[in-house]
């Protein structure tokens, strides 16, 4: 086995798990899940069938990633993040053929207790604030906060909030806005 699994974790036969991944206490990975290399699944994490996690994805404690969710490389899911996969759930109505896909693009970060309503795409390196409720697509590098989530700024690839000069204070990377989208111009 090229990954670590805590003795209380359940990995269903058929699940694909990349090298160097660590799966901690009381987590469950379903049979058709695909988890990349060097991922970390914290305590009490559920990874559903047909979920795909890229390389270096960090899933903090108490997160359920349901069928229909894809997370690309370098995604961060904070503690107790909530994903949905049905818009109008009812206990008495089977809607497994109505799952709406959710795509979390490379480098995106989702803060603790945020809710991501199904059917949206979160752009590269976007940052969702703790407790936000995302109901619409998110632009790359956008910072969203609140309920419902609204864009309140821009962030760099390293997660620093950008000022008016659109230069990352940590890395010196320079950005510009073209057609309402943030673009990296120098890094």
UniProtKB/TrEMBL annotation:
SUPFAM superfamilies on file: Trimeric LpxA-like enzymes
Name the UniProt record assigns to this protein: Serine acetyltransferase
Recorded superkingdom: Bacteria
A Pfam family it matches: Hexapep
Record family assignment: Belongs to the transferase hexapeptide repeat family.
Family annotation (InterPro entries): Hexapep, Trans_hexapeptide_repeat, Trimer_LpxA-like_sf
